[in-house]
Amino acid sequence: MGAGSSIEWTESTWNPLTGCTKISPGCTHCYAERLARRLQAMRSARYANGFQLTLHRAALELPLQ
User: Fold this and answer.
1) Using CA atoms, how far apart are residues 62 and 14, in angstroms rounded to an integer?
2) Whose CB has fewer CB within 10 Å in the chain, the N or C terminal residue?
3) Is 63:1 a contact under the CB 8 Å cutoff?
4) Is this structure's pTM higher than 0.90?
5) Alpha-carbon torsion 38, 26, 5, 60, what sign?
6) Kind and range of the H or E element at 59?
7) pLDDT digits 0-9 by tens, 7-54
8) Which residues, at least 6 apart from 13, have a Cβ–Cβ distance to it below 8 Å?
């Protein structure tokens, strides 16, 4: 989980998913896809699959800790 979030209405964030599925023409110039490619090139473990929708099972139980 992300600690020390800069979002004013929360203390932390959690997302067990990375990637997405393009569903509309508005997805053509998706910033998140470019970021995913960059993180994959940097060998970030969570982006090993690039922008392919990926569930990170180990992250599912983080809110319970």
Assistant:
1) 8
2) C
3) yes
4) no
5) negative
6) none
7) 889 888 888 999 999 999 999 999 999 999 999 999 999 999 999 999
8) 1, 2, 5, 7
Tell me the two tokens of residue 55.
Answer: 């569930």
Residue type, 24: S
Contacts of range 6-14, beta carbons closer than 8 Å, 24 or more positions apart: 14/59, 14/62, 14/63
CA distance 37 to 43: 10
Two tokens, residue 22: 């393009």
Q: Give the SS3 label for residue 51.
A: coil
- Within the chain, residue ranges assigned H as helices are 31-41
φ, ψ at 18 (rounded to 5°): -130, 155
